[in-house]
Amino acid sequence: MDYATSFGLIIPELVLTGSGLVLLMIAAFGGEKASRLVSILAAVALGAAGSLTIPALANGAGGDASMAFYGQISADAFSAFAKLLVYAAAIGCLMIAPGFFGQRRAMKPEYPVLVLFATLGMSIMVSATDLMTLYIGLELNSLAAYVLASFLRNDSRSAEAGLKYFVLGALASGILLYGMSLTYGFTGTTSFAGIRAAQEAGLSTGALFGLIFVLAGLAFKISAVPFHMWTPDVYQGAPTPVTTFFATAPKVAAVALTARVALDAFGSQADAWRQIVIFAALASIIVGALGAIGQNNLKRLLAYSSINNVGFILIGLAAATVEGASAMLFYLTTYVVMSLGSFVAVLMLRNGEGENLETFEDIAGLSSTRPGVALCLLALMFSLAGIPPLLGFWAKVEVFNAAIQAGLVPLAVIGIAASVIGAFYYIKFVKVMYFEEPVGRATKGGSAAHWAILIICTLLISPLGFLLTRGLQAMTDTAAAGLFPGV
Fold first, then answer.
1. Which residues have CB under 8 Å from 279's CB, separation 6+?
2. Which domain of life is it from (predicted)?
3. Residue numbers of the domain that contains 169
4. For 115-128, how does the pLDDT look when each residue is reduced to its tens digit (9 = 90+)?
5. Which residue has the higher pLDDT, 366 or 82?
6. Please, what's the largest Cα pairwise distance for the chain?
7. Judging by DSSP bridges, how do beta strands 67-68 and 73-74 pair with one another?
8. How confident is the model at residue 386 (pLDDT cuts 50, 70, 90)?
C-alpha cells in the first residue's frame, strides 16, 4: 500500500491535526479575545472530521483495504463508529464550556485547542492496530488531559486534580509500557495481527504476563476496578466542563481501544483474558455502586456512577463475540448521552451569584425552584438506574443478552442482581429534588447551549429515543463486525 492511499484513509486525523495547528496560531496571536472564534472553529473541525468517517461506517469497512501505513492504523467501521461518538461528545463539551469559564473570566483559546489535540489522540487510539500507534495516541490524549484537569490555575482543587491525574497516569503508562515490552519480547512483533498469529498455538507464561500488564494499564484509562482510585478525586476537582469531557469522549476511546486489543491482538486467547475482564466488570459494578451510596458531592457520585457503568460495558466485552461487541458499543453510546446530560444538569445548578452548586443539600426541593432541570435529571437518573422504558434499561438488556448467548449466564445473573444496588443512589436524586423542603439555592438558569444539550440528551434516553434504537443497533452491529472480519 502506497502512502497516498494511507493518507487518504486518515483524512479525519489530518483535518484535526491541521485545524489544531492553525487554531493554535490564532490563539497565540488573538489572545483571549479569540476564545469564542477558536471554540466555534474547533467544533466545525470536529464536525468535518466526523462527516469524513461516515462512509467507512456506512460501507462496513474492514480487512486489508482499511489498513494504513503497513498495518499501523485501521480505518474500519469499528473505529469510524468510535470516532463519531468521540467527536460528538467533544463538540458537546466545547458548547458547554464558555458558560462555565466565562463567569470566572477564565475562558481562554487554549481550551478548545487542547480538546482538539486530545480528540486527535483518541482518534488515533481507536484506529491503532499496532502497539506503537496505540501508545502514541494514548499519550497525545493524556498530555492534553493533564493540562485540562488543572485548567483553572487559581483553583487549588483543579491544580490538585491535574497533579493526581498526572502522577497516576504516568504510573499507568509505565505499567502499559512494561506489558507492551513483554508482549513484544515473547511474540517478536508489535502488530496486533502478528501478536494474534504468534499466539495461535498457545499463550506462553511471559506473553500472559504481558497481556495482564497491558490490560492493567488500559484499565486505568477506563476507570475499571482496581485502577479506579483517581476517578472521584479528578472528577470532583477538575472544572465541570473538563469532568464532562473526561466522562464521555476519553471513556469511549479507552473502551474502544481495550476492545480492539482484547479482540484483535489477543482474540485467539479469549479464555486467558476473559476471566480478568469478568473480575474487573463485577468489581467495577459493585465498588461503583457501593462507593456512590455515601457520597454527598454530585460530581463524586457521578464519578462512581461512571465506574459502575464501565462494569456493565465490560460484560459485553467478556462475551468475546460479535453480539457482545455490538452490545458494548450500544451501551457505550447510551452511557455517553446519559453522562453528558447529567453533567450539564449539574453545571446548570448555580446560585444567585453565579457560583456552581455540587451537593445534595443544594438541590433539595429543586422541583419547586427549577422544575425543568429537575425533570430532566429525574429522567437521566432513572435511565442510569436501568428503569424501563428508558434507554438505559435497553442498554443493560443488550449486554446481559450478549453474555447469556455466550454461555456466561452466572455473569449475567450477578450483573442483574448488582445493578439493583445502583438504583439506590440514583433514586436518592429523586427523593431530594421532589420530596425535601426547597432551599432555593439553585436559582440561576443555564445558557441556551446548556438547555439545548440537556433537552436533546433527555429526549434521546426517553421512550421517544427508543424509536432510534433500531438504527443504532444496525450501526453497532456493522461496527462490531469490523473487529471480526473473518466471521
1. none
2. Bacteria
3. 3-483
4. 999 999 999 999 99
5. 82
6. 68
7. antiparallel
8. confident
Q: How many whole angstroms separate alpha carbon 321 and alpha carbon 301?
A: 32
CB distance 141 to 122 below 8 Å: yes
Amino acid type, 205 = T
Q: How many domains would you assign to the chain? A: 1
The answer to whether the bond into 438 is cis (omega within 30° of 0) is: no
- Residue 448, burial from CB neighbour count under 10 angstroms (0-12, 13-18, 19+): exposed
CA distance readout (Å), 32 to 107, 118, 127, 208, 262? 7, 21, 34, 51, 44
Q: Give tens-digit pLDDT for 13-63.
A: 999 999 999 999 998 888 888 888 999 999 999 999 999 999 888 887 777
Q: What are the distances in angstroms from CA 108 to CA 31, 129, 372? A: 8, 35, 31
Give, in order, the Cα–Cα distances in Å from 427 to each of 338, 344, 365, 385. 15, 19, 14, 8
pLDDT of 44 reads: 94
Please tell me the distance from the alpha carbon of residue 317 to that of residue 261, in angstroms, as a whole number.
Answer: 11
Q: What count of residues does the chain have?
A: 487
In the block, cell 480505518 appears at 75
Query: Does the bond joining 12 to the residue before it have cis omega, within 30 degrees of 0?
Result: no
